[in-house]
C-alpha cells in the first residue's frame, strides 16, 4: 500500500517478495504488517530480512507489526542472528500510528493467533481479515471500509466443522454486508478454486462491488 509515498506491505506469503521488488526494486518499504505466523502469510519476510541484514547493515530498523509467533518462525530460519537488528517489533493485536495511517489489529479466530488489520488515512479505510473463522469482530474490523479484503478459502466441508478457523465466499459476503463495506475483495483461494464462482457466491450476500484478488492487481483507494 502506497500513500503519499509511504509504503506499507501487508502479509508476505509465497513469492510475494519478487512482486514487491517489481514495484520497489530496492525493497524500501516503510513498514510491514503480518497477520499471523502461517508460512503462506509470512515466509517471504525472510527474504526481506536478508536484503536488509546483508544489503543494508546498520540501516534504520524496519517497523514490523505482527503477533509474536511470526518472529518465532523467522527465528527458526535465522537462529544465529539478532532479528531485532532489522526489525522494530510492535505486537498485534493493538493500535498504532504508522506513518500516515492509523492501524488497528483485532484478534480473530484461526489455528494460531491471527490479527485482522484495519488501516485508515484521510477518512479512507482498508481492512483485511487475514485467515479467520466467522466472528462478530469482522463487522467491526471492516466497518464502512472502502475495501474489505476477506479470506474465502471455500475449503470442502468448512461450514460443518465444529471449530471454525476459515470461511467460505458466501460468509465473506455476509460479513462484508454486516460491516457496511463499500467493496469486498476475496482472497486466500484454495488451489484449484474457481474465483468467478467465489465472486458469484459472495454476491448473493453482498450488494457492493465484489472483486477476486489477482496476482499483480493494482487498486486505487477512495475512487
Ligand atoms: Zn493461516
Automatic annotation (TrEMBL):
It comes from the Bacteria. It holds the Pfam family Lactamase_B_2. InterPro entries: Metallo-B-lactamas (IPR001279), RibonucZ/Hydroxyglut_hydro (IPR036866). Gene3D superfamilies: Ribonuclease Z/Hydroxyacylglutathione hydrolase-like. Coiled coil: none annotated. Residues 28-189 form the Metallo-beta-lactamase domain. SUPFAM superfamilies: Metallo-hydrolase/oxidoreductase. This is MBL fold metallo-hydrolase.
